[in-house]
């Protein structure tokens, strides 16, 4: 991205390289973080507070939001494949272990957009296409509302169907 030209009063002194030329005093093309120009984020007292600085959202945050939003949908029994659910159940029983809200969720996060992949276990008897539609809507709404990122896609992989007579290991771990 090309550096923007700014006046010397809006660029903090220590971050701007100075060699005596006026052109370099007005152009901030290097920063300490290795590539983003100082002029990308607005600076100076005349700029609104919301535009001073950047906010980055870690992938783990988006994973947790998406995982919790998917679990809220009726008909979703669990997230994750059988191996990840088994390992998660063991981890939940270890003292100090906690429920992994991002189990079965993978995301790609950019600066303005994100994509979500979910491994879903559905309850027997529910219409899978309806559950998938509701999961997509709920995940998109939650992630966009909480992060401000545009969700470009939510891919679901139905990995299992929970039968009515199967034990619910997640419920067991909470009751003991």
Write a brief structural summary.
This protein has 176 residues and is an alpha+beta fold.
Textual characterization of the structure:
It contains five helices and four strands, in the order ααβαββαβα. The N terminus is likely disordered. It is elongated and about 65 Å long. With 176 residues, it is α+β, with helices and mostly antiparallel strands. Strands 1, 2, 3 and 4 form a four-stranded mixed beta sheet that branches. Helix 2 packs across helix 4.
List keywords for this structure.
4 strands, four-stranded mixed sheet, 176 residues, single chain, elongated, 32% helix
Instruction: Report the span from N to C terminus.
Output: 56 Å
Radius of gyration, CA atoms, in whole angstroms: 23 Å
Biggest sheet layout: 4 strands, mixed
- Can you give the mean pLDDT? 75
Number of helices: 5
Give the helix level as a range of percent. Answer: 25-40%
Beta strand %? 15-25%
Order of helices and strands: HHEHEEHEH
Based on Cα principal axes, name the global outline.
Answer: elongated
Number of strands: 4
Q: What class do helices, strands and sheet pairing give?
A: alpha+beta
- Quaternary assembly: single chain
Q: Enumerate the spans where pLDDT stays under 50 for 5 or more consecutive residues.
A: 1-38
């Amino acid at each position: 991205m090309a550096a923007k030209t700014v006046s010397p009063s809006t660029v903090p002194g220590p971050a701007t390289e100075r060699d005596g030329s006026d052109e370099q005093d007005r152009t901030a093309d290097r920063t300490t973080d290795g590539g983003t120009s100082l002029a990308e984020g607005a600076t100076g007292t005349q700029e609104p507070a919301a535009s001073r600085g950047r906010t980055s959202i870690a992938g783990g945050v988006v994973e947790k939001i998406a995982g919790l939003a998917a679990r809220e949908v009726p008909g979703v029994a669990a997230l994750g494949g059988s191996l990840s659910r088994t390992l998660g159940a063991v981890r939940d029983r270890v003292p100090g272990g906690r429920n992994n809200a991002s189990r079965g969720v993978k995301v790609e996060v950019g600066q303005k957009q994100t994509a979500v992949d979910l491994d879903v276990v559905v309850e027997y008897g529910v219409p899978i296409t309806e559950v998938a539609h509701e999961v997509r809507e709920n995940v998109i709404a939650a992630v966009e509302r909480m992060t401000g990122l545009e969700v470009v896609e939510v891919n679901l992989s139905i990995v299992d169907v929970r039968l009515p007579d199967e034990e619910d290991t997640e419920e067991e771990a909470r009751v003991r």
